[in-house]
Amino acid sequence: MFRLGLLVCFYNDLELLDATVAQVLLHQMIKCSHLRGFQAGVQKLKAELLDIAVENQTLNETLGSLSDAVVGLTYSQLESLSPEAVHGAISTLSQVSGWAKSQVIILSAKYLAHEKVLSFYNVSQMGELLAGVSTQAFCSMNRKDLSQVLRSAVSQYVSELSPAQQQGILSKMVQAEDTAPGIVEIQGAFFKEVSLFDLRRQPGFNSTVLKDKELGRSQALFLYELLLKTTRRPEELLSAGQLVKGVTCSHIDAMSTDFFLAHFQDFQNNFALLSPYQVNCLAWKYWEVSRLSMPPFLLAALPARYLASVPASQCVPFLISLGKSWLDSLVLDSHKKTSVLRKVQQCLDDSIADEYTVDIMGNLLCHLPAAIIDRGISPRAWATALHGLRDCPDLNPEQKAAVRLKLLGQYGFPQHWTAETTKDLGPFLVLFSGDELSSIATKFPDILLQAASKMAMTLPPKEFLWAVFESVRNSSEKIPSSDPILGCHGVVAPSSDDIFKLAEANACWALEDLRCMEEDTFIRTVELLGAVQGFSRPQLMTLKEKAIQVWDMPSYWREHHIVSLGRIALALNESELEQLDLSSIDTVASLSRQTEWTPGQAESILQGYLDDSGYSIQDLKSFHLVGLGATLCAINITEIPLIKISEFRVVVARIGTLLCGTHVLAEFKRKAEVVFGDPTEWTSSVLQELGTIAAGLTKAELRMLDKDLMPYFQPSAIKCLPDEIFKELSAEQIASLGPENAAAVTHAQRRRLSPLQLQSLQQALDGAKTHSWQDAPASASPTRTSSSRSPAGALQSLGLWLGCPLLVLMAKPLW
Q1: Domain boundary among 252, 273, 294
Q2: What is the chain's alpha carbon radius of gyration, rounded to the nearest angstrom?
Q3: Does the keyword Glycoprotein apply (predicted)?
């Protein structure tokens, strides 16, 4: 066995194995996770070996010797374990990856039942099981122990905790009477959860302290402004990485030419951290102080007409620098993107001659027009281009059709492909029709499954999913259902193996297939089924009925049952939701992860939590508010004033991610005024922290906001502004939105705007300079100095600044 190496993953002679040998095989199979595309077979083999390994022995005795196959244990098996057995096997259990959240909940409860008290030592042993610790248990920990946890190796698992659990830890670390030490000790991505309110109370920050912390944008805006006032070396702030998120256009405008050029590399090194608005500001600054040495990709952030300043001799640097960035994040307006791509085509002369040109293109390859893909890529360059195209995240329909035709021309129809060709073209199989894929599904089902498994982060086309579904159904063992349910006799129900292989293609099961599923199959796969995004409402209803059949009525369900349901829980009606035991905020937090609840369902969950926990609105802690998530939108607006300010102020940013109704947001906005003062006093960091809460501003309050604050609305807040309120923004305010917020404006909001407002919106989309109107250049000529511009352009800028359409219309005739 030890000499088999990876061949152990394909061992199939199980008849004569005894429990001891099965345990050794399971230990050897840890290495099988390195195999790509064979995990379904590995999973099935482990399950069979697991059954042999526990024969004639209790699970309590064998738990520590089952290796990573323990993730295959069912809920009932895990629940049968004694706390002592879990404690004795914790070194194995804590290192195993692949646990379902419901399994982690059961095992953590068993482990902590043995330990009694939650201390640094026993938490540090939990590893992968840390996510099963309840929010309340974290809050009950000694703060010193909790601080040690955050500094220890187990802190790597904090990112896997729910927002409610993270807030529970944070509320303990950042206690009202002693904020400073707790905040400084928080490292990495977890630091983003620290509220702006708590940051404003903390005096001891410097760039060195912040070096290993990930910052949210509101935090960075506040800290950069704060540290800029006290530091003698502002360049240290730019080199601190995350702090660049807080550099505003005003800061960039205020930099001297020498300082800006000397430290521009700091911006470039952290380009992924910059917002489109910041990139736009950097582009304008570079254009003004040193346009001849300007990195060519920055021209894409300026209005489209500035692309004319790229001479043919600069095409290669332009393509290289633009190809190193993702155009979709650099240019958000579709019309402007068309202009940029037109310049790219001009530089390419509508063709790609060789591999060198493909390498120059970089990420721009993903934006090639269909016509160039079809006719403009030479045979010499095609192989390299095809390799690049497979990494493109989102080709449009025309591009996909062009790639498909090109592949058909090169390789012929899929029914004639060899296994090697099919494997090479795996990422492109989604481009073909169901009929074209049927032969692949029949001849090479394993290759089709491998291709599907690599698309786990995206939702493939329905035709592709059907091909995957048919290939699994055709190759699996067909055992008619023995379920006594009426109408299931003879139906070939889904097996655990089928469900594991299919992933998102599970959405293709017929209702009767799901209804006739064996109970044991449902228990083993419910978490996988709950993660399928493509299930229809009737399919979810069928799976909910199966859950009731297996677990009895919802009133009997425990936390791990509810957590395992995932999207299936969306099928629970209001009466069934009221039956659930929602006394734990962690149970509610698992439900609030779903975003498709109806208002009635959300209200049932919120009220169910209040009833079962015994809390009233005024009793809710910060971690309760976070755990309630989207269900908080169902709160009665008369109850929002009852939420304690001391709890609300530390979770403003979390509440600001919710897409609540206008009246609810308006009431939260009133509460935010108690924390941050009158809207006229709000800063860029406050506006960014508030998120969608800022959409609760009244018409009068919105009109009073300084135009320089407009880029610091979050795009989600712009979308949430009611149409009749959004139209109250002045043309100057709209022009100052910045590219990202302008792109967030909805069609309904656009329809309510005047011609002048629409012109301003287009300016914002195009990246026109509005943060320093008085010196905006009106010409794209590379030889013009930063202060020169045409008189007509100057008068047009003045006309817009005054909000006077007459001056805009008269500008050219006057001059």
Answers
A1: 273
A2: 30
A3: yes
